[in-house]
# Entry
Amino acid sequence: MLVLNRFYQAIRVVNVKRAFSLLCRELAEVVHIETDAAGQKTWQNLDFSGWQELSALKREFEPDGFDWIHTVRFQIAVPRIIRLLGYDKLPRQDVKFNRRNIYARDSNKCQYCGKRMPTTELSLDHVVPKSQGGKSSWTNIVCCCVKCNVKKGGRTPEQAHMHLITKPIKPKRSPVINIRLADERYQSWKQFLDDAYWTVELK
Ligand SMILES: [Zn+2]
# Structure
């Protein structure tokens, strides 16, 4: 679930449990976006009870449009976007350099043969090997299948006559957010991640 700060800037992604905990404690509200038949977007800001009421309606008329949480007393839709009411720090600019984010940046594709594979069948490759002075950095580490990794060995791509399918770069925002954007259920996130949009709207 996407979290916005008070100024509607995307700051992070949290899990459902965390989001509901923020909502229940009135630290956050739901930003609910609807697209009407004409493609016009409208949004509503709802507190927990408002969201509960809307959920009841959606449960009746559009149950397929949402993921649902089932509690003993009621069912509530999982919101896609919440907005923190007190948080006004700017979004974290730095994307964490970790395995998950490297795989996400490379879309789980081996950067030599281009095959997409499950995480368990991929490894990380130093483009310029450590033994030749290569650093562990965004621009020198790529996702690589075991087969290509063995073939390349301790050599540079040139030495091994292998080619990178894309030049590794440091992502500007969390690659995990980019992946979710590809899922149509998360389309409503898009406008909050479009920097240009918000530069125009906010002075
Ligand atoms: Zn490969």
User: Anything to note?
Assistant: The first helix runs from residue 16 to 24. Residues 195-203 have pLDDT under 50 and may be disordered. DSSP finds eight helices and nine strands in the chain. The first strand starts at residue 2 and ends at 4.
